[in-house]
Amino acid sequence: MAANGFGWAAEIxxxxxxxxxxxxxxxxxxxLCGDPTTRHTxxxxxxxxxxDYAAERFALQFGEVDGWTVIVEPNGYVCSQDAVLxxxxxxGPAAMVFWNxxxxxxxxxxxxxxxxxxxxxxxxxxxxxDPLPEEAGLxxxxxxxxxxxxxxEALTGVTVDGPWVLDRERPTVTCPLLxxx
Length: 181
Known about the structure:
By secondary structure, this protein is α+β, with helices and mostly antiparallel strands. The chain is 21% helix and 34% strand. It has one domain (10-175).
């Protein structure tokens, strides 16, 4: 199975995408301690330029697709933390795909406040849980990041494409890097 439709991922050197059900963007912002004084509308590039890595404060963008909240973190990783993903799944499932320029990568899936599956798509190493049935047939060995995005889509039913991630202006807020409890 080719990773058709996910070639846009190669255009982005670092990203964390999180899909969750059962929590609105406003509820997610509150859960993640978003600073309301930083709320503005921005494109992906504008949010990436506004990151404050020294202060460990990251731009998170919020959108909605088919009733799911989608969090876009340009070169961020707040939602890649286990405790954050678990908290975001308290009211419904949450899937997260993360990668950066150092070839660090992570896929996570949580339900009912607990991690179900966590693995590194690039290295193919598992951290939590057994492979999910939806992982069968994905091009993980040849296209690990697109395969992880395909898995998130299979688990959530939510499809995002390059223009949705890169070109749309969306609500953006600054959040601290929460400690991984």
